[in-house]
Amino acid sequence: MSGRESASREPLDPDNPIAFPDSVGMALKGSADRKTRQPLSRSRKAPLEKRLPRGLVDGYRSLRGSQWRPQELAAAIIVGREVEARPELVEALREDEPMIVFLVQDEEERQPIANAIRRGLLPSFGLSKVLRGPQVAGLRFEAAGPEPLGMVFVGDQIVGRESRRRPEGLTKAMRLPGPIVIVGAPDEVPRAIQKTADATIKVPRLDGGTLAEVMSICLAPTETEPEPVPDDLLRDLSLEDLPMLMRPGDTRSRAVERLRRMQEGRASSPGGKGAPRKTSARLDTIGGFGAAREWGLSLAQDIADYKAGDLDWSEIDRGLLLSGPTGVGKTFFAQALANTCDVPLVVGSLGEWQVYRNGNLGDMLKAMRQAFEEAESEAPSILFIDELDGIGDRRYFRHDHAEYRIQVVNHLLELVDGIDRREGVVVIGACNMPHRIDPALLRSGRLERHIRIPPPSMKDLALILRYHLGAADIGPRGPIVRELLGMTGADVERVVRDARKIARRARRKLRQADLIAAATGERPPPPFEEAYRVAVHEVAQAVMIYGSGLGEVEEVALTRGGRTGHTDVVIEEPELPTRGWIENRTLVHLAGRAAEEVVLGEPSMGAGGDENSDLARATDLVMTMAGSGGLGPEGSLVWLGPPTRLREIQFEVPSLLTSVEADLKAMYKKAVFTIEAHRDLIETLAKRLVRKGIMSSDEVRDALLEHLEGLGADGPADQAPPAAPP
């Protein structure tokens, strides 16, 4: 098959075409003489003989009590199956000198697979000498002799570390008699070698049946066929993990329990292989997530129809971008979605890929590829990629590492396109800042749908709290939910966890007071002046919502004992907003700060802060209007870039900052004038809010109508808060 000169070798026993397990057995028992093979006893009937190569089970079972290595037993079973399933390869190993490539999915599995081949597969075909790559490199041709050799190359023995040329050992092996076996990950074996090899075998992952068989050999004997290990315990399990699971004297149940603890530890550890902590949550039993939840429920039905054969995969959404602030539960959503769809979840992130192994470009690309390959191997599945905004946008790479980042983006595009050509994988990307993602990733056929997960509403928080509390009876939950306003799903989980800790310390059941204490940080209520400032801020925004006609106020509440506030509103955003609508929307964001200045004499930093603060949102609105929408001051029609990029280029365009600053100051003046005109209303509502802690939409609306009727003595009864100074 290979075209290289063939040499004679000892014939095989026709009754045992592959005595593979026997040879591995002798090697593991320390046999020093591999020239004359002594088959192990096959007197016992192998219960898995129909599924495994002949003689495999009995050969390994004779090792019980010896110095066994479970990872090599598993490797031998896996490789034995793959070779036995290829009669043409068996014939080539008997009569020819083939070059065979074994592609492993995990670098940790290279050595166990190579050892099983070197100690078992090749000696079982009569090869008296099997050399490793470095031994071949140091071998002199005159010392090789006429006898055929087995030659096994692993990892960087295939291609040199500093060069893409073949190392000396592999080059020399091509001129020596005997089969060549190459073991490596797909990116370690050059495509030219994969294509010219006589056989390229993708080594499958460890399965439950193989693990059960290894347990039956290494642990207590069993007379019946062992039950396979549950598939959910096999995810990310490597051959090199097996010695930690099976120790001398262990029972099978103890080994399975040890495996269960290992997987739970990986799932909860940030240093594991990427899967989030396990949860039983399903989208149909939890609240929150807005439109993402509806999309997920629809996807679950589509995947169920696909599994039943009633729907083609081409009809199913295969890509989604999830965005939202930190803590809204994007990773939790992915796990709940996978549970709802009843499919595996494979998790990766840009940060995790960047630190893989040595962190160089090749390592990062390999880590990315492994995540996609794992998702494909588990299809139908969901591949969740966190921190996707770290990928960047090729149009704006201008630094020294631009070429590196361009290759990362290009490789990710290639992988996503590859998924599109294969059935069974849904790719979900998650990010905080979607404007930083290369637009090519968001085109049709890739992550073509974008859904933003909003912070949870009061109704959502009640459902999230119910999920995390389970069956715990803590009485009315309304007071607790009010303290949770403004929190994310992750915050609620932390609050419940902290509350349970408080109850445990007191050695009693969980109480409502524990949850309130956990939500408020067990701090005493703030002084009236602090709570009143927060109330003034929130009430002013509610009044401005009604005065501008933008929408409805659902409720206004003080949270964290009065240290923070929350105004829940419903605003219908037009498809084509005008400058007037944007100005009114900006006034709402500026109203709280203006009210603090008017009512209390000076503003606080409450309107500022992170990118979700009122000042940040007001700035974004005005910047988009001026830089992208053609609605800037004095009729400016200059387009400076898409809205998603303006924040990043604002300091490069001084005129943009000047324009935005001028507009914001003018709008703030409007907000101050409006608050001054209705100061009495705002003070009354703020004091009521401090006293009650929460006000409904009806309370706010009724107070506003009463206030406007009072103004009727000096003006029309339907007078609304003015939107601009006279």
UniProtKB/TrEMBL annotation:
Domain AAA+ ATPase as annotated: residue spans: 316-457
Gene3D superfamilies: P-loop containing nucleotide triphosphate hydrolases (3.40.50.300), Peptidase M41 (1.20.58.760)
CDD domains: RecA-like_protease
Superkingdom of source: Bacteria
Enzyme Commission no: 3.4.24.-
GO CC list: plasma membrane
Region (Disordered) residue spans: 1-48, 261-281
GO molecular function, one term: ATP binding
GO biological process: cell division; protein catabolic process; proteolysis
Keywords annotated in UniProt: Cell cycle, Cell division, Hydrolase
Keyword Hydrolase applies: yes
Compositionally biased residues, Basic and acidic residues: 1-12
Broadest EC class assigned to this enzyme: hydrolase
Name assigned to this protein: Cell division protein FtsH
